[in-house]
């Protein structure tokens, strides 16, 4: 079997030799604009990404370490992320200089010119202007290879700065000999506890000539070990004009021995050979999809897109299979390879379905990695980085990857363990899941980004149901199919949008264009079509094919402008469709489901032509670890996975005349413009064409809506109950609402609106005469403790309104999760308001509650003042309370700026004034953007 595989692989290898496909890769694509890619040297799915760093300030457009607009290079580090929206990596940074060594980034950095820069698959080169040094970089899987040519004679230095880019938790440098050093870099950024071990070998003996260390012991150039949380060294050698120094850097996640073992990937100092080896690896990899095309720009766009899907996930084990697990212990991979960097919220949509087509073995490796992380870390990965769970983004989309592989019959992992791991993620009680399980949706009261989480959990639950079906688990299938319909509970039948709910009803006011904390990096337009698991049900919810088509048309033809929060991820707008971010990626294909494939073709080909260019700003949004490019690769082939987990593709006319796809070592298939339609739907999946996808499940009744004027009231308030008028059940005529107040007694039939005059909890459900009813929902309404009124002198940000002015006096206190909408936010201004007590009375206490989340630019006021007045004209200052919360603290904090007076004072009006922190300070991530702090206030209490 091994011999047969080797022979076939050799034949495949020989068939692609000479194609030189790597020449079409332009790693500069995406390094400008908001693409966030890097231009450096790497091999397919390699551990090392050796690339220049032009950004060290943590700025959003510097997430990869490099931006095309920059003019300064700080150094060359060995790990980089491809197109993410958060900053990390940049480990083991080296920088060649000349003359007196300096260890400050502003001193060792150098200007450069794009005219003297070259980037290709597995290779990068640049001239450093400051000291006229030519740098060339290449790599193997685990080793970065540097070539420095010094064009002037003198003292050559190679700077190693372990404080480069992120926070150094532990740094160590061990001197093995004059040509070899070992390094530990333990750091904190997006990954909170990342370990990188390295072994550096110089081609010539070097001497230490400068040290920066904060170790208690004074460091000397003759020491053999250096350590500290501030650590940089300079290694020096006299050079003549034209001399070269080569440097090899092997990485390991496990330890010094692992790095030493990994160094064996490159023997000797033949830079050209290593570069050519890297290029050959890319030729083999890129040849998995061969296109017929004469336009060189289109060739570069396609093969760079394919390249960008193959620079991650990254191998994260040593040559001997040892890796650092999610439990921070060292394990050995048996029968699979262990990987890292799983941007699953992005990549489940297109990149992983692409991998099932051309990377089946790696798909199995990825899933086995997931399962080891489940066993070692307690749950499946969400957004894993360097064996750390970042918990960035939402959903539990590793289940999509596993369900898709199982649906396509990919073997090599434990299906039963995969199902148990998936079920475990779905049955947790965090991130809104407790409310989701209890009531069939997530409310703003329960969790931020509630609409997006409800919709994405519902899709993931459908994936788990498909896994259960394959394993003949009927009860689990029924349970998760019920949960998969939860999207119906946030679909507003009157407006035709997915909407946030608050306290049992729809949140108001509602603008489908508004980007706010109820959605994940998007708005209602960009989430109202996310029901990939039940597209026909979604079409019916909109009223049928014609209304659904009209809704899609309206989205694509609307004004290309959003409201609310500025969201840098939302780019590439066609109306309200946003190709620059992932939630929109399937939408153009939805026309196929209503018999309008010509509209799918029109939209898809427009995007292929307009949003992908052979330029540095050639990506319309973040690359997002290959997803932006995977959309291009699949769509140009005429296929896309609208519903990963369901076998088959949604199709359109292929973009290229002919496409040859190597599905595995012994199978090749072809796509051309004459072989589309039914053939493309099962491309690469022919063995499944006789087993069409079938579902059998009980439809749910969507929950009712509890309607009231507000969450709080003074004397009394009317409550009404509404429910979905769409035909989700066979007959709506028998649907009835049942309710009770304060859990007293049995539920009673709702016949008309009713009135409450005390604080009350209302519970409601729907039930027909012939089937199981809806989930029970609840709402709590609060009678205000007094009849005070408030006049705001400041203007709150409309996204952070907390229900308006009266929300500051309703007696309901917000939590540290301000994204749930309970706090009022003010920016670029102080907060000032006057409370009218309605009559003059004795006052003794003042309370004003404020919140801090410095990472979100929300800082405590510097001080709060309280004034009193009898006429609302002349005010007397009675108390000033200074802030004592450190603005640098990372934890969300709530502080009650309160004062109890030594004796009571008479007043009818109380003024509260809170002073804004102002411009964000230099240490803050918002400083480069000239950012202004927010004040967040929730409750004012006067006694």
Explain what the structure shows.
By secondary structure, the chain is of the alpha+beta class. Helix content is 21%, strand content 29%. It has 19 helices and 53 strands. Helix 9 (398-407) runs parallel beside helix 12. It is globular, with a radius of gyration of 30 Å. The model is unreliable at 1-18 (pLDDT under 50).
Radius of gyration: 30 Å
- In percent terms, what proportion of residues is strand? 25-35%
Helix share, percent:
10-25%
- Averaged pLDDT, please? 94
Secondary structural class: alpha+beta
Shape: globular
Low-pLDDT segments, ≥5 res = 1-18
Number of helices: 19
Main β-sheet: number of strands, strand sense, barrel status?
Answer: 9 strands, antiparallel
Strand order of the largest sheet: 6-7-8-9-17-13-12-11-15
The count of DSSP E runs of length 2 or more, i.e. the number of strands, is: 53
N- to C-terminal distance: 83 Å
Give a brief rundown of this model.
The chain is of the alpha+beta class.
Show the helix and strand layout.
Blueprint: H1 2-16, E1 51-53, E2 72-73, E3 75-77, E4 93-98, H2 105-108, E5 110-111, E6 117-120, E7 123-128, E8 133-139, E9 143-150, E10 154-161, E11 167-177, E12 180-188, E13 194-202, E14 207-213, E15 225-228, E16 231-239, E17 243-252, H3 256-262, H4 271-286, E18 289-292, H5 296-308, E19 314-315, E20 322-324, E21 330-332, E22 339-340, E23 342-343, H6 344-347, H7 351-358, H8 360-377, E24 383-385, E25 388-389, H9 398-407, H10 415-426, H11 433-439, H12 450-470, H13 474-484, E26 491-492, E27 497-498, E28 501-502, E29 505-506, E30 514-515, H14 524-527, H15 535-541, H16 545-557, E31 563-564, E32 573-574, E33 577-578, H17 597-610, H18 627-637, E34 639-640, E35 650-651, E36 658-664, E37 667-672, H19 678-681, E38 705-707, E39 712-713, E40 717-722, E41 736-741, E42 748-749, E43 754-756, E44 760-767, E45 777-783, E46 789-792, E47 824-827, E48 831-852, E49 863-869, E50 876-882, E51 893-896, E52 899-914, E53 934-942
Parallel strand pairs: 30-31, 39-45
Antiparallel strand pairs: 1-3, 2-5, 4-10, 6-7, 7-8, 8-9, 9-17, 10-16, 11-12, 11-15, 12-13, 13-17, 14-16, 18-36, 19-22, 20-21, 23-24, 24-25, 26-27, 28-29, 32-33, 34-35, 36-37, 38-40, 40-43, 41-42, 41-44, 44-45, 46-48, 47-53, 48-51, 48-52, 48-53, 49-50, 49-52
